[in-house]
Structures are given as C-alpha cells and as structure tokens.
Amino acid sequence: MASGGDASVNLEDVPSLNLMTELLRRMKCASKPDKRLILIGPPGSGKGTQSPIIKDEYCLCHLATGDMLRAAVATKTPLGVKAKEAMEKGELVSDDLVVGIIDDAIKKPSCQKGFILDGFPRTVVQAEKLDDMLAKQGTKIDKVLNFSIDDAILEERITGRWIHPSSGRTYHSKFAPPKVPGVDDVTGEPLIQRKDDTAAVLKSRLEAFHRQTEPVVDYYSKKGAVTNLHADKPTEEVTKEVKMVLS
C-alpha cells in the first residue's frame, strides 16, 4: 500500500482482480464499527490464533510492536533511525518511540477502522502513554481482551509441543501425539522441542508476564474496558466468545 506521498505503487500496474478485491473489502468494511483493541495474555494463551480472525472479521489492522519496530528501522523512518541508534547502543527502545511508531501506523488506510495491539502495552506507564496519544486524536481503547488461563494448563500446552524441524509439522504429546513417540509420522525423522518450549523458560516468561502485565489489566479494568476470555477452552469456543464480546 502506498503511504502518504510515496508513488512507488502505480495503481495502473495493479491487477484488476486485486483492485476489485480490495474495493469490495473496503465496501464491506465501511459498515463495520470502529474498534481499537488490545490483546493481553501469556505465551501460549491463543492470542496469535485469534488475532487474524478478529482482524478479518472487523477490518482492523494488526499491530505487532516487534514487527513494526523492525519495519520502521528497515524503512529508515525518522523514528526508526532513533530506534536503531538505541538498539545499537544496546539500550531498550523508549516507550515514547514505540508509541510514536504506533501513532504513525494507525494513520494508514489499513487502520482506518481501528487496530489490534498485540505485545503492547506491557507496563502501566506504556498504557498511560498510549492513552495520551489516542486522546490527542480524540479516540481511546475500546476493549482489552484478556486471555485468562491457568499457568498449569499453559505448561501442559507448551511443554508438550514437539516439532519436525524441516517440515514445521507440530505434534503434542497429549493432544496430537505422533504415531511413534518422538518421531515424525511422515519421514520417521526425530522430533525436537523448541528451546523456549521448556518448563524453565516458560516459568520465567510467565513470571515476567504476571509481574509486568497484570497491572495493565487492572489499569484498564478501572476504565471498564476489560473482558476476561476463557482462553483454556477450544479455539472455536474462544472465537465465539470474542465475537459475542465485540458484537
């Protein structure tokens, strides 16, 4: 999508089918209400599964702050240049910079109907800065979807995951086991576990999540914006719950 005055995409060169598809999508989306959402949940809680479904259903743009930072650095936007300087010094990118990058992103046509923020805000200070920026535009966060799930269930979900590295096929020792333990069904090659799918890594990630991010849920709860989802249920049921909350 050409941004601002960037003429690198000439519409004459875009195939008609793509143009028509995009036009139909925009017409369908025109009647959708605006939504500005934050998804919060620990690793393995299913945010990554639900966000594309929500994005398509409500014509929102998906803002994953890590990807946006990398894109801003790669395209050398003014904020991207600053972020790169911080990274090269081994510093964390400041909250103000990240909020600035979000501010830039939500002005794009694809974010016209609103956005899904994923992985941000992680702290109350970030939430306050985000709210200030949105208030200047006369908008606010409509809903915070909190993917609540017991740590013990996450441990079972995540530590049971096994992967066939060359094909990306995934198995689960309890929910989708291979025919022969530890071996890929198709090739008979050994399965591996990702380094961050171990109980020890999960424990430290969950501790960080509870310490930093649960106060963010409290912060938005006081504003009446939080809905707790039963993230331990099957995917389809969580999707139904999300649609009920957002309808």
UniProtKB/TrEMBL annotation:
Catalytic activity: AMP + ATP = 2 ADP
Molecular function via GO: AMP kinase activity; ATP binding
InterPro entries: Adenyl_kin_sub, Adenylat/UMP-CMP_kin, Adenylat_kinase_CS, Adenylate_kinase_lid-dom, P-loop_NTPase
Enzyme class: transferase
Record-linked Gene3D superfamilies: P-loop containing nucleotide triphosphate hydrolases
Role, per record: Catalyzes the reversible transfer of the terminal phosphate group between ATP and AMP. Plays an important role in cellular energy homeostasis and in adenine nucleotide metabolism.
NCBIfam families for this protein: adk, PRK00279.1-2, PRK00279.1-3
Protein name: adenylate kinase
